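User: I'm putting together notes for a lab meeting next week and I want to include a structural view of one of the chains we've been expressing. I don't have a solved structure, so I'd like a prediction I can at least talk through. The sequence is below, exactly as it appears in our construct file.
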Amino acid sequence: MIRRVLSGLLGTLLLFALAGCYRDPSAELDDRSWTPQEGSSPQEEESQPLTSTAPLPEILSLPYAPDQTLDPITCPDGMQQVVGSLLYEGLFHLDSALNPQPLLCSSYTYDPNTYTYVFTLREGVCFSDGSPLTASDVKATLDRARTSQRYGRRLSAVSSISAWDGQVQIVLSGPNSALPALLDIPIVKSSSDADAPLGTGPYLLSQGETAMLVANQVWWQGDSQPTEHIALVETGDQDAMLYRFASHDVQLITADLTGTAPISITGSVTVQDTDTTVLQYLGCNLRREIFQNAAFRSALSMGFNRSYIVSAFLSGHGRPAQFPLSPASDLYPADLEKDFSAASFIEAVQASGYTSQGTLTLLVNAENSFKVSVAEYIAASFTAAGVPTEAKVLPWEEYLSALSSGEFDFYYGEVRLGADWDLTALLSTGGSLNYGGWSDETTDALLSASLASENRESALRQLCMHLQESSPIFPVCFKLSSVLTQSGVFQGLQSTAAEPFYSLSSCTVTLRASTAEE
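Assistant: Thanks for the context. Below is the predicted structure for the 518-residue chain, given as structure tokens.
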């Protein structure tokens, strides 16, 4: 598990934005739902506290909004999802390398001729009330997910879902050999409370005088939970949540440390970064004559130092990437990467035959200061190499309007990709996120092949080789999401972006000895 230490802070001041507290408008470039994010070149080291250790809590506590639903299909982003990750499980979940691992699914088959999957459910799985998990429950959950705002686009290629004894059949409208990577959708008991449905996870919700999570005694994994009870502390708004965390009333929150609207907090904090699929990239307007030159585009794609961008402007909360696949993934073709060289960039621009046609404009949305800084750096790098470029900072609505109308040379974009690495919306002819107007038969064919092939590593490698040569977009980095915890409370906690408690069975929780486990 990749972790990073947040360092270089003055005293105990942390500047970060809570994931889910503010929905970054740039995430709307994504045709999937938004969750915490990802990043650059993290170090292989243990998370360390930012300040001296605070007194241990008497009981592990998480923030909770009692007036908001816990239904994982409709609940809001943020801490409700963290609580939900302890209540619910999916057919699969994504590991730290963003690979799907079976959870409620024990096995599956795929017929590439009919685009049909059949998933066999794991035997012996019960909901927290002791009732068995059924195929009908899975179908009912996925049917709701298909029409939901959170998962609707993700499941847009699903034609039908059927269920019978212990098996669920999903028929797609086209090929996708990586569908399991999209099926980390939490499954709930279809006949249970709509606002707090029953799940199969390690904890269940107890709503007595105070809300609390209680260890699920019929959890199918059979492992012991690190603590019998987790208190749910009411936090009515963002400020209340931050106050609770700063005062150690709650011990874990998630954060986007390079998001919009930075905020401050004090306390003894440990930071662990997790990989997600949020790509930041530079797009160009391929409808303009200057960008018809593939050699010029290829030169531009290597015209900025990605590692420097991540360390200097994203505080290390990113992974430099030259391809639209996360470097955390085993599918990323690291051997195809090229080293950055300012001198080589200048030579490549000159060799491309480029002649200046005036100053080019790089659009960036004003709401995120981190992105503005990156865009300004890239513009300066291009200018220094003889390609005059200036960053133009616009409010979100104006930024989106300019993209939609093609009124730009470059734009700095962000998109949350699916873990199946389907790049169709971003790069196919007429794709919904293809603002640059890229249209190329070879790209379209390779995109289709990457979804249809059972040898995804080879197919994606071929796609990346073509994208490197044609350079329709210039990937910059993948962002990182962060899990912030009170120092000294958790040992052995390994998190993913969707599951802060991913390594629950190997995690231990240290509480104040006199009242622990009351």
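A couple of points you could mention at the meeting. The CA atoms of residues 91 and 104 lie 4 Å apart. Residues 277-479 form a domain with the Dipeptide-binding Protein; domain 3 fold (CATH 3.10.105.10).

User: Perfect, that's what I needed.
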